[in-house]
Amino acid sequence: MRWTSRGQSSDVEDRRGEVVAGRRMLGGPKLGIGGILLLLVLSFVFKRDLFQLVGVGSEVGQPLPGQASSTTRTTSPQEDQLAEFASFVVGDVQDTWTREFEAAGERYERAKLVLFTDAVRSGCGFAEAAMGPFYCPVDGKVYVDLGFYRELKERFGAPGDFAQAYVIAHEIGHHVQHLLGIDEKVRNLQASNPGQANELSVRLELQADCLAGVWGHSTARRDILEAGDVEEGLAAASAVGDDRIQAQATGQVRPETWTHGSSKQRATWFRAGFDSGDMNRCDTFAGLGR
Ligand SMILES: [Zn+2]
Predict the structure, then answer these.
(1) Which of 48, 92, 107, 202 has its CA 20 to 30 A from that of 100?
(2) Full-model pTM
(3) Band of the pLDDT at 73, cuts 50, 70, 90?
(4) What pLDDT, on the 0 to 100 scale, is given for residue 51?
């Protein structure tokens, strides 16, 4: 891809410095002893755990071994460049969706891209990098571990930058589905037709691929694609898989729905979005149950 750094997009939450150990989060803002006492008092008064609100583990009142030394982590220049690229992509994908929604008389609500390392606490629960990138509908954020990106880059080389972009565009596709209420409809259908739950999940994933293609169409029109970008992106995306967890509103992970459709299906639907640039061509649910 031909891209230029725009610096850090306001769409990005960089949490790479945070360390999350097990289910206890040690990172978050550093509070002085005064801040901790104040939050303890306020939590008591309001009968709520206000440490959650400021992103500090609720166990903060107890000794946290190693906290001082483990909350900071230096990032490499390569990692920073990946972060800049991710920042460019999420901004560009969402600018595209803002235009698409406006054209349809709707308002697009931007999602955040959370960059993390190793583990993260999301609105859908605790997640580890090994689970792969994912979208959490509860907090409307996309979570990407740069370690996953590094792996993608090392495996597929420099021309694979479109693969990294594709992963983000696919996850933002889930956000678009969420804004349109499609994910909720699918969850309701899955609850009433358990036998079709997997099939519905696949169609939801294929639609996210098609929506990623709609963005791809826009990049082609603006001439920021390079030869082979699309093919390499598709190959990498289907080889690696993408969001391997399906975070439900309940925060539960359901391995039986870790299905994204075959590589061929994914490529076909990406193409449908890419060739038309029209999200109305992304009806992956047509003919369901026939
Ligand atoms: Zn997905």
Answers:
(1) 202
(2) 0.76
(3) low
(4) 52
- How far is ligand 1, taken at its centre, from the CA of residue 1, in Å? 22
Lookup: tokens for 16: 């790479």
The upper half-sphere exposure of residue 89, i.e. CA atoms within 13 Å in the direction of its Cβ, equals 27
pLDDT confidence bin for 60, thresholds 50/70/90? very low
Report the chain's terminal Cα–Cα distance, integer Å: 40
Distance 204 CA to ligand 1 centre (A): 8
How many angstroms is it from 150 CA to the middle of ligand 1? 20
pLDDT in tens, 186-230: 999 999 999 888 889 889 999 999 999 999 999 999 999 888 888
Distance 170 CA to ligand 1 centre (A): 6
Cα–Cα dist 256/206, whole Å: 17
Assign 3-class secondary structure to 194-255.
HHHHHHHHHHHHHHHHHHHHHHHHHHHHCCCCCCCHHHHHHHHHHHHCCCCCCECCCCCECH
Residues with CB under 5 A from ligand 1 (ion): 205, 208, 243
